[in-house]
Amino acid sequence: MKNNKLTEQEKQADLIDKIIYAEADTGNKDSRSDLAQGGCGVCERKGFPLFLVRKAPISLDYPFAGDSSQMRSLVKDNREPEAGLITHRYVYRTLRVGYVYILVKHKQKGWEFLGYEITPSGVYRHKSITDVKERNIKEIPQSCTKDNHHHIPGAFISIDTSVYEGEAYIAYTRRAWSQGKGSTISQYLELMNNGQITLDLPSKVAAQPIKTDDELNQDEADNDLRQQRPLDLKTALKRFTKINLTKEAYLAPEKLTEGGKRSFAFSELKSSRLLLELEGDPNSIRYLDPSDENEAKHQAPDKLEHFTGFTTVHKFNSLRDMDKDHNADESGNTLYKYKPCASELDKQIKHFENSNRYKVPVVIIEDPFGIAEELSLQRQLKTVPISQMLVKSEQIYNEKLNEQTHKLHAANDRLDQLLSRKVEEYSQTHANEAAIIYGEKANKSEFLAQAYYKNYHSTQVLGIPCDYFNEKRLHLRKTLSFINEYRNQEKEQELSKLKDITTYIYDLKTDESTYTANAKHYLDLGYRRIEMTEQEKVAHLAKKNASSEITYTNVQAFGHTPQSMEAEAKLKAARNNVKRYKLLDTKREQEFLRQDKQDYEALFASVAKHSQDYFYYLVWLFGFKEGSAYLPEAIKSYNDCEFWLMECDSNGSNNHIGYLKDFLQLINFNNLGDIKTVEQVAVWDILFTNQNSLFYHLLDGSNQSFWSLMLNKRLARITQELEANPTLKAEQKNQSDEETLTQLLADREKDDEVLSSQTQALLKELEAEESGGKLDKRFFAEKGEALLKLYM
After folding, report:
1. Residue 458, class by beta-carbon neighbours within 10 Å (0-12 exposed, 13-18 middle, 19+ buried)?
2. Do 574 and 596 sit in the same domain of this protein?
3. Residues 651 and 667 in one domain
4. Total of domains in the chain
5. Based on CB atoms within 10 Å of each CB, which residue in 352, 465, 574, 648 is the most buried?
6. What range(s) does the Toxin VasX N-terminal region domain occupy (predicted)?
7. What is the pLDDT of residue 26?
8. Model's pTM, two decimal places?
9. DSSP of 735-764
């Protein structure tokens, strides 16, 4: 069908990017499940129950009873970095909002998928696999959680063991997988049946000529334009957790997975006290949703500096027993408080195990993007106070500078008298700084005015000298930078005079020792020898001796090198400014520089320490050997299951938009100016040098990607304009096609209004065309505009 047949209501529903906490209608298709004989797909399901958990990082600052060293390690299977966490530790958490896919073998039909939605409250809703689509997942009705605790049975998934047998593979994904021909679902099924598939990669075989509109409208086979790679079943299944559906495993959770690496009894989970949803105090855990602009505004990292609990990027759903509180929120909804026990959960497990057919297992499911997102937020919570203090000190400094400037302009006194008076006032109010600048002795005063800084406590906890951020220290740095700028200007003037100067050294004797000694003197100063022919020496000596009473017998020529020029220019500049430099107390200047460097190094070390876990994980997740000169030595191996090449769309679908948002959250580095760690540089190197990275895949994952189609349309339009304008074409005749197009695009960007109008027109063209398998069938112009904004 044509994309423009979508109703405006359907378009608006697709454009909403926030989780809708609407309730599912208990009578509609959203709630019915075959596993519940047509009953509720949340709380009435039958079959083998499994409790799914993921490994997730929490800050070491958060008090938690469980011993993380007792957790299952995935290092030997290369499913997590071998380098341990240094400022965080792992705990178990329930799965976050998203989808669970289970590859199961039907006794008659063969391999097929089971699908679950995970609601915002953390319960699993079983759906027909064709109904598992990327959408705003609806919440279970509030009535299910009030008195009946229906969310507790919904915290488990179920597999009908009367229908399925043998091996099964479970995977979590934040974004629903595509369906249909060539889709993620079909590719995984093909892998299970054939053992191997061929993937089209983002990297191109060779540069391709620009297509005209006529060529764009043709359904031509372009698969040869992209690199391809075989993908075997073993590699593809690494992101899944394999379980064994056998009678023995039903009663022995440790036998559910190979060697018990990813499964164990629920009783072990409780005794280890490692599940955050059971052991974490709900009042000490706060959820920050970065996708919710309103919430992010009120709960941004710099607003949470006084919160001493654990702030998480993923919604926290306690499994403790709930009790009605006597209060209500602003909307009149009943508020609940939590008890320190989980008797309802215990009852549910006992109910599952009453038949003696099953013993409830805990199964570990991978969520690498979830780990990276959490580490990103935890890093921000530690580093945002630093950026906030830097900004605040700059703000205070500029306010005070403007205030003093206005006073000087308003005064009628002579400038030298004003400056003298200001120096005296400054010495009285800023004794320590005055001692550094003017050489006056003074007792050390307290730099930090704590009232200025909301983040004072945060930086103290990080071990950063808080007075480093004080606007007074900033003033000293700026003053010193002005002095050094003057020094550099003087030096540059001297350098300009030295560029073409050749220095000649004359000798009275021609013996080798004198010749060598003089040469060594200048070579040691960094000069370079300029070779002279015998004829040049004779001519030069004749000219020199004609104007001298002394007769020289040898001459040597030396020219400047950058090293010698730098040294001599610096020396001459210092000689020219002896009087000025005497006004400076260089000893105090050096002491200030030493202290400032020491404090900066402490700041940098703190940022590096609290960034390491995050960047190490990204290096492992996206890295490859020789991917960067800055790869940390602690990372010896890298993730070899690039699941995004199969699971992430690039065709303008909801999945595509969702993954773009996820990626932007993954790489939210929280810029701190010049403070960049080598691991941060390594991550950028990895993403940019690997043309099959997630970055390139989301941007232009195939020759029929949204980006590729949009770019070809724009270039074709420009080509048409050139053909229709002979004068313009003649002006560009000495340029290559690439240079011409680059120039035209640059000129077009100067007129934002024209560019925006043309972009809208091209998006409308894409919407109006038959998709032909190129773009998602529900693509429309507004969705394309949202994608372009994310790309920017």
Report:
1. buried
2. no
3. yes
4. 4
5. 648
6. 40-179
7. 47
8. 0.79
9. S-HHHHHHHHHHHHHT-HHHHHHHHHHHHH
